[in-house]
Design brief:
Blueprint (H helix, E strand, L loop, with lengths): L5 E6 L1 H11 L2 H21 L5 E3 L3 E6 L3 E4 L2 E4 L3 H22 L1
Antiparallel strand pairs: 1-3, 2-3, 4-5
Helix pairs in contact: 1-2, 1-3
C-alpha cells in the first residue's frame, strides 16, 4: 500500500514582521527566525520526519498520513494544542500592536 504525502506550510512572515515592528531591530527578527528553524529541524530529525525544505517565505514539510487538519494547518496530533496556542498569541500581539497605533 502506497503512503500519501501531505505537505505542511508554516508561514512565518506575519509573525516575523510583527516582531520586527515591535522591536525595530532586524537582528532580533533574524535570531527568532533561526531559532524557530533550528528547533523545527531538530524536532523533525528526532522524530524522523523528513525531508525538510526551507524557502524564503515559508517552511514546507513533507509528512506522512496520521496528521490532523487544524484550520489552515495540517499538524501531527500531539502539536494541535501548540498550533492553537501560537494562533492565540499571534492575535494578542496583533491587538497590542494595533492598539498602540490608534
Amino acid at each position: 500500500m502506497k503512503e500519501k504525502q501531505l505537505k505542511l506550510r508554516v508561514r512565518l512572515s506575519l509573525l516575523l514582521q510583527m516582531v520586527l515592528n515591535a522591536t525595530g531591530m532586524h537582528l532580533s527578527c533574524l535570531i527568532l527566525f533561526l531559532l524557530l528553524t533550528l528547533t523545527l529541524k531538530t524536532t523533525l530529525h528526532y522524530f524522523h520526519y523528513i525531508p525538510f525544505h526551507l524557502k524564503s517565505s515559508h517552511m514546507k514539510l513533507s509528512r506522512s498520513i496520521g496528521d490532523m487538519d487544524v484550520g489552515e494547518f495540517i499538524v501531527p496530533v500531539p502539536y494541535v494544542k501548540q498550533v492553537k496556542e501560537l494562533e492565540r498569541r499571534r492575535e494578542e500581539l496583533e491587538e497590542l500592536l494595533l492598539g498602540e497605533r490608534v
